Every structure is written in C-alpha cells, then in structure tokens.
Amino acid sequence: MAEIDVVASSWKTVEVGRVVLFTRGEYTGRLAAIVEIVDHKRALVDGPSEQNSVPRHSAPLSHLSLTGIVLEKLPRAIGHGALSKRWEKDEVDSKWKDGVWSKRNAQREKRKNLTDFERFKVMRLRKQARFQIRRAQASVRKAAK
Q1: Which of 44, 43, 19, 24 is nearest to 97 (CA)?
Q2: Cα(48)–Cα(92) distance, rounded to whole angstroms?
Q3: How far is it, in rounded angstroms, from Cα 8 to Cα 10?
C-alpha cells in the first residue's frame, strides 16, 4: 500500500492571542488581540495599541480579519495591563507596519485621496513605463531572431 502523508493546514485559526484587524463597525482599520473566545461567532477582543486603541468588548467574528501575527501562549482572559506589556514586548505595531497588508492599505488610501489631475499624472506615468518595457521586450525579441 502507498504511504500517505497527512499535513495540517496552514490556515489562520481563531485562537487566543491572534491579532485581528477590524474590517467593519466602529473600530474599522484598528488592531486588537483575541483575549477569549465567546462562541463560534463572537470573541472578546482588546486592543492596547498606542495609536488606535480598542476597548475590551465582545466582537462578532464577521467584523474581524485574522492576521498572521500571534501572541504565543497568551493566557485566556488576560488583563489589559499585562496584554499591553506583551503587545509592546512582541512589537506588534512594528510587525504590522512592516507587513504587506498594512502597506497595501496605505497605498489604497493614498490612491483613494488623489485629485483628478493627480490620477491623470499617474495614468501618463504608467503609459510611459509600459512603453519603455514594451520597447525593451521588442529589442530583446529582435536580437533573439
């Protein structure tokens, strides 16, 4: 018989210590940590971030997006002070700022706030870059013949 290797999935799971991003509701765009799992649809979250703190409350999982950042071995129902110390120790804010997700959100926000003339300039620059790339590709194809 053939051997079968069973590999665990690498999905992000709802777990105590998982850092989440609010995607809907009053705290949209803010980070928090799951402190306790209430049931299959809600979690108790607390966000001790300096810039955008989130008070401890029960939040529906449909309003949250799970990030790849996890505070390992975080005790269940940890207090706000201890969570703040752990948040600083694990440098969650700097990990978030260095991540792709945060940079993409910043780029999207920057594009959203452009004026009509700035959008026009972006379009012209993209056309110029595309022209240069196609010209370089054509010269490579011509040299290959």
Answers
A1: 19
A2: 10
A3: 6
